[in-house]
């Protein structure tokens, strides 16, 4: 059975890069009828952020990437938090000592810094300590770490399923720390031990981890375990081709949720980062991606995470993919967050229908449609100038609107056309001042559709308010 995983560290905001890698792990597991695991790698206590784990899991749930086992899911071996598995890692580090694949090193932080300055990195000097002496010093409680003993000379081959075989000179592979002096494992030891014990068959991760893979291959060899298949995905890039980072891009998944991006659209867009559908289409469901997925369709070129392209895709989902009722349901929390309300569901549905071609995110709907939900909407400078152009005829137009027998779009349009013709004006010369008065802006859905939605009472009150503002 194919088993994949992601192993985020709870050190900050849930990252879009985590979601990207999680998506491909999930797709590959489902493609093969396998399992997808979430494991929280929380052994770096200096960088641990309280609450970050819950936020990561919540972001994955929001994004619609379900996992079979993880910190909040009961499974045959879960939950998975590395901080709860410390005795396991220590036992495996001790096993490596017995097998001659590791050694104890007793340098102080100050000594290590001096070695780094002189040698450019740790030079393996503790290899020369006789094992009996090292064990005695450890028994006496002398602080130390356990390091990997890389075989030298020699080479280590890494087979990457996307890149082929990469050969590393063992002289370039450091004797990395496996178990720190505080008893916590480093990424390398915990990662390999957990992947093996959890039955992970396919390690799919970002290409920045490729340089660490020879260390992991050596650890698998040291334990006598079969290594998983490795796939190192291309890194997400900013439009300037640099690695995506919060200095240049929005990397927090929570930001995208707060801004009103749809999880389906963001997930779809992440699927385009390195992968292409056989028919070239860009809009596809998760199920369609799973059905069409193959590693041959994954490109190693650095995929560019373009926010404008994501906005375009989000707009396509709003207008063409989600049912109108679903879009209306999803804008509700954004309206409520800023204290806006609506008379009934039919009103909200019609408001969303009118605005649908004009917004690309749920938050943008609230920003652009606020005049449909509040009476104290602002009147922009351009709108005010346009309103003043109609001050001469607005009182008379108001009177005719009051007397209009039927308050419907067709009747409103007929009244405006007749009024414009009578006054020797173009329709726009009459409509635009009214639009400015009713909405505070000059770009809206059709004026008569807006007026029909607002209703006679609100339209007349707004026209009166606008004229009072100009006179003031």
UniProtKB/TrEMBL annotation:
Family to which the UniProt record says this protein belongs:
Belongs to the class-I aminoacyl-tRNA synthetase family. Glutamate--tRNA ligase type 1 subfamily.
- Where along the chain is ATP bound? 246
The answer to keyword Transcription applying to this record is no
Chief place of localization? cytoplasm
Q: What is this protein called?
A: Glutamate--tRNA ligase
Q: Which InterPro entries match?
A: aa-tRNA-synth_I_cd-bd, aa-tRNA-synth_I_codon-bd_sub2, aa-tRNA-synth_I_CS, aa_tRNA-synth_I_cd-bd_sf, Glu-tRNA-ligase_bac/mito, Glu-tRNA-synth_I_codon-bd_sub1, Glu/Gln-tRNA-synth, Glu/Gln-tRNA-synth_Ib_cat-dom
In this chain the Aminoacyl-tRNA synthetase class I anticodon-binding domain maps to 327-466
Q: Quote the cellular component terms of the Gene Ontology held in the record.
A: cytosol
Localisation: Cytoplasm
Q: Which Gene3D superfamilies match?
A: 1.10.10.350, Glutamate-tRNA synthetase, class I, anticodon-binding domain 1 (1.10.8.70), HUPs (3.40.50.620)
Task: Find motif ('HIGH' region) and give its ranges.
Answer: 8-18
Record organism: Thermus filiformis
Task: Write down the PROSITE patterns for this protein, in alphabetical order.
Answer: AA_TRNA_LIGASE_I
User: What GO MF annotations does this protein's record show?
Assistant: ATP binding; glutamate-tRNA ligase activity; tRNA binding; zinc ion binding
- Which reaction(s) are listed as its catalytic activity? tRNA(Glu) + L-glutamate + ATP = L-glutamyl-tRNA(Glu) + AMP + diphosphate
Q: How does it assemble?
A: Monomer.
List its EC numbers. 6.1.1.17
């Amino acid at each position: 059975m194919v088993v994949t995983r992601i192993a985020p560290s709870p050190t900050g905001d849930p990252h879009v890069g985590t979601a990207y890698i999680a998506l491909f792990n999930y797709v590959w597991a489902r493609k093969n009828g396998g399992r997808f695991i979430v494991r929280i790698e929380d052994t770096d206590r200096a960088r641990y952020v309280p609450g970050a784990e819950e936020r990561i899991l919540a972001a994955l749930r929001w994004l619609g990437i379900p996992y079979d086992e993880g910190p909040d899911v009961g499974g045959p071996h879960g939950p998975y938090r590395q901080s709860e598995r410390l005795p396991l890692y220590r036992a495996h580090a001790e096993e490596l000592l017995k097998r001659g694949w590791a050694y104890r090193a007793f340098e102080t932080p100050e000594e290590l810094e001096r070695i780094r300055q002189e040698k450019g990195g740790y030079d393996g000097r503790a290899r020369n300590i006789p094992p009996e002496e090292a064990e005695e010093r450890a028994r006496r409680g002398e602080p130390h770490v356990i390091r990997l003993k890389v075989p030298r000379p020699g080479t280590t081959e890494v087979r990457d399923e996307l890149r082929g075989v990469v050969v590393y000179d063992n002289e370039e592979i450091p004797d990395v720390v496996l178990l720190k002096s505080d008893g916590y494992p480093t990424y390398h030891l915990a990662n390999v031990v957990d992947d093996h014990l959890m039955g992970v068959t396919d390690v799919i991760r970002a290409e920045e981890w490729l340089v660490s893979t020879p260390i992991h291959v050596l650890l698998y060899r040291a334990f006598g375990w079969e290594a998983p298949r490795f796939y190192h995905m291309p890194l997400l890039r900013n439009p300037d081709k640099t690695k995506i980072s919060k200095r240049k891009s929005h990397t927090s998944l929570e930001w995208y949720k707060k801004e009103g991006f749809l999880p389906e659209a963001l997930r779809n867009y992440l699927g385009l980062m390195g992968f292409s559908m056989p028919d070239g289409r860009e809009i596809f469901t998760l199920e369609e991606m799973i059905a069409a997925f193959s590693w041959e369709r994954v490109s190693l070129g650095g995929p560019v995470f373009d926010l404008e392209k994501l906005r375009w895709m989000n707009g396509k989902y709003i207008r063409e993919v989600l049912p109108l009722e679903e879009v209306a349901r999803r804008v509700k929390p954004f309206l409520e967050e800023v204290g806006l309300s609506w008379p009934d569901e039919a009103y909200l549905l019609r408001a969303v229908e009118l605005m649908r071609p004009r917004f690309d995110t749920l938050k943008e709907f609230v920003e652009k449609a606020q005049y449909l939900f509040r009476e104290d909407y602002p009147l922009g400078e351009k709108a005010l100038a346009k309103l003043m152009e109609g001050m001469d005829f607005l009182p008379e137009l108001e009177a005719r609107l009051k007397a209009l027998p039927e308050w419907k779009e067709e009747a409103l349009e007929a009244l405006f056309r007749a009024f414009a013709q009578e006054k020797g004006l173009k329709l726009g010369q009459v409509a635009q001042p009214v639009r400015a008065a009713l909405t505070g802006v000059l770009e809206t859905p059709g004026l008569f559709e807006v007026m029909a939605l607002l209703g006679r009472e609100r339209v007349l009150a707004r026209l009166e308010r606008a004229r009072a503002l100009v006179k003031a």
